[in-house]
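re: that chain from earlier
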Amino acid sequence: MDQQPSTENSLRNKALDEKFCGSCGEIIKIKAEICPKCGVRQRNPLSKTALLLLAFFLGGIGAHKFYTGKNWQGFFYILFCWTGIPSLIALIECIIYALTSSEKLQEKYDASGSGVVIAVIAVIAGAIGIVFVISILAAISIPQFSTYKNRAYQANVKSELQNLLIAEQAYFAEHNLYSTNLEEVNFVPGMQNVTIEIISANENCFEAIGVHRQLDETMSIDCNGIK
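^ sequence. v structure.
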């Protein structure tokens, strides 16, 4: 049976940094783990509701284990959370907690790891938030980057086709016809990833196509310009 607080202690109020021993009622420091009078280790009262909520919603990462001070078990839950096994175990534990009276839970556990739970949840929430933000930025930037990259490839092809047009016009001015031979019109491709091919040419016009290795589409040009 718990001892009653001493008369001396009952006559004075406890300070802000003090508390009553849960066993003998002696006024002790709030951070004291063991009562200097009765030698009983102090326990933080456990909330059954908090335990159930942690086990049900965050049991897969061992939040309920950290709450009850079983930190090593909590770390194993985090380590294997990707397997889904800790979530299943936590669900079973949640059912057991729900069927156990608050008094029994108080006898078996205490809330010695409340601060650790808050820290773990904060870290995990921060990590999830960072991943969420990065995912959003990636979803926005990757398509835009791909679009800009394709436009740059298209600009390279257009530039080469324009150079071919100039070369063909110069050849036509001298020979009064267009040529199907790139070397004959003195056209030298300036970009390694761009391929230019003259499809047809006569005294009236010519037609050529250009393609970039990174693009599936082709672009074409004739004596009137890029189509």
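The beta strands are 18-20, 27-29, 194-201, 206-212, 218-222, 225-226.
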